[in-house]
Design brief:
By secondary structure, this protein is α+β, with helices and mostly antiparallel strands. It has 9 helices and 24 strands. The longest helix is centred in the middle third of the chain and has 14 residues, at 135-148. The protein starts with a strand and ends in an 11-residue tail after the last strand.
Length: 405
């Protein structure tokens, strides 16, 4: 099986999800009579309204004799928890940069994560049809950025594709417009390494989870070593080192947008597993007899906190249906299972919870999601987290780039 696992990374709004749309079209995922619309991957209402990707997602495309697993990631550092989870499953990254804007602060953030993990990049310079864009200068800027992030020589020797994802073409030169994006798919197959096949006792790091009311919680991850089979007995190694015996009920791999049930999955493939109880993201599914844990996922620390309180104003109970502190607590704890960068603490008051997150956008998306689900709550103003490092108080900093016309 010729397999490639790639993550698509970029600054907010440089066209990642649009590019994935075109790759799905090239892989003939839709029949000619189906018109799936745009931003197929952004399935959540909030994502479509704001035009940004919040949750990381998986799909796969068949091209020639290859299967390409595509992992779409959010570009905003507030969702850093999502980005790091996904990069753990990839062997290479497609770095997308706007031909007019060049690398932006978030490009730097997401790319630094990929370089730390030693992933091989393919660079796509997108939107070359914009007036006044400078694709060649942008190519130099990307090289300088990688050099500054201490990329290896192999990472610096990257292939570049130029094109317009919106108009559906990619080429090796921005002046030569082509008719499709197969140049990019060929570049991915030639430059991104196939996953190593490792033999031995099975290991899988859980990097994501899904929920179905029919089968319960579903663990998603990439098989690091060995083979996993349906009905196999396994050991779940928790983040704190404790071990729980368990059994795999069913195995699925990703085909197109859906999942396909299979009997066994070998190393390098990304799969979904049902039947494992009580797992968390960062746990390892390992051999029944001799379990060995994989290094767990390291997530960036929160930078700000807000208080969430029950609504005790005169308008209590007018809009929402979930209004008690127990409702709010249960919903916040459920969110921490999926949302790795989020932390929730109880306070002196039974009705107030302190919620820590990566930034204003991270927390505002949670608040808006809860409001739409019918929760009523009061929010305190955001506060920056100040840490003591070697006896000196430190606060988080942000880098900004401001364009003045």
């Amino acid at each position: 099986m010729n397999l490639r696992n790639i993550a698509i990374i970029a600054h907010v709004d440089h066209g990642k999800t649009t590019l994935v749309d075109k790759m799905l079209m090239a892989g003939r995922l839709f029949d000619d009579h189906e018109n799936p619309g745009e931003l197929i991957m952004d399935s959540n209402d909030l994502e479509r309204e704001r035009g940004i990707t919040i949750l990381a997602k998986n799909v796969s495309v068949r091209y020639k004799d290859y299967k390409i697993n595509i992992l779409d990631t959010p570009g905003h550092s507030d969702f850093g928890g999502e980005v790091e989870r996904v990069l753990n499953m990839a062997d290479g990254v497609v770095l997308l940069v706007d031909a007019f804007e060049g690398p932006m602060p978030q490009t730097r953030f997401v790319l630094s994560k990929a370089i730390e993990l030693g992933l091989k990049p393919v660079v796509v310079i997108n939107k070359v049809d914009k007036p006044n864009c400078t694709p060649e200068e942008v190519h130099e800027m990307v090289f300088d950025l990688m050099f500054n992030l201490e990329a290896t020589e192999e990472q610096l020797d990257f292939q570049t594709a130029y094109g317009s994802a919106k108009n559906g073409w990619m080429s090796d030169d921005w002046r030569n417009e082509t008719t499709d994006i197969t140049y990019l798919l060929d570049t991915i197959i030639e430059n991104i390494p196939a996953p190593e096949s490792r033999e031995g006792s099975p290991q899988l790091l859980i990097t994501s989870l899904d929920y179905s009311s029919f089968v319960g919680r579903i663990a998603i991850g990439r098989v690091h070593r060995g083979v996993l089979k349906t009905n196999q007995q396994v050991t779940l190694v928790k983040r704190d080192g404790s071990k729980v015996k368990s059994r795999i009920k069913e195995l699925f791999v990703f085909e197109g947008f859906g999942k396909v049930k299979v009997e066994e999955v070998s190393s390098g493939e990304i799969c979904a597993i049902t039947g494992i109880e009580g797992f968390e993201i960062g746990d390892t599914i390992a051999d029944y007899e001799n379990p060995e844990a994989l290094p767990t996922i390291k997530i960036d620390e929160p930078t700000m906190s807000m208080t969430f309180t029950i609504n005790d104003s005169p308008f209590f109970g007018k809009e929402g249906k979930y209004v008690t502190s127990r409702h709010i607590k249960d919903r916040l704890l459920k969110e921490t299972e999926k949302n790795l960068a989020l932390r929730v603490e109880e306070t002196d008051s039974a009705d107030t919870f302190r919620v820590y997150g990566r930034g204003v956008l991270h927390l505002s998306v949670l608040i808006e999601t809860m409001r739409r689900e019918g929760y009523e709550l009061q929010i305190g103003q955001p506060q920056v987290i100040i840490k003591e490092i070697d006896g000196v108080k430190m606060e988080p900093i942000e880098e900004l780039s401001i364009d003045l016309p």
